[in-house]
Amino acid sequence: MAGINSTNAEFGEKARLSKSVALVTGGSRGIGRAIAERLAVLGASVAICGRDRAALAESAGAIEKLGTRSFFQMTDVTDAARVTELVSKTEAKLGPITILVNSAGMGLFGPAHEKTEGDWDRVLDTNLKSIFLVSRAVIPSMIRRGAGDIINISSLAGRNTFAGGGIYCASKWGLMGLSGCMAEDLREYGIRVSVICPGSVATEFSGRGPKNASKALQAEDVAHAVEAIVTQGPVSFLSEIHVRPLRKP
User: Fold this and answer.
1) Residue 58 banded pLDDT, cuts 50, 70, 90
2) Which of 43, 69, 169, 229 is in Cβ range 3.0-4.6 Å of 165 for a Cys bridge?
3) Which residues are catalytic?
């Protein structure tokens, strides 16, 4: 049998998702950008959204250099009307969304009793409400096609508690419950809903960072978990993945 040369291997990798269209929220930096680029390497057309136009444009350019189509839009994913617009424009530009990665998120830490109602709303809207809104906008077309992947980026803080994590943990525990129920609601339609729970990741994420960044997870480690989800066989799904650093940071 002839060996597989590097050109053939690269073509095979890019062909894995060549018919897929992915939407990655928070895709201009950190974990979201790493995921967007990994999906592009696998051949998917990729749309990203965020609040920084310059960062979005730069990220979209990097995606296109990987040999696939891209689209970006400044969007507030906590606003239902803007989410509807984002999904509509993405599908008009790239085609029906087959992969949704809800990666937009924020951190705000400290004792819950010292936080304001505005702090609560900002964290819960970003980390939980946005997943509800974007998923709700994408799901109807997935149901019509009888297939799709929805991947929610949570945190090990969605399984554990710690001092100063009250509002953040509430958002991530809520996301775990939402994701599990969505999975049960949608599996009979051929739609897989998965959740990824990373430990501390060395990114620009605001708030509680790792004690030792050199031992922390990298954004690419989370992207690898996304790849595992979207390239698995058609009759199974990875419902929950925990990603931990090998050595505690």
Assistant:
1) very high
2) 169
3) 168
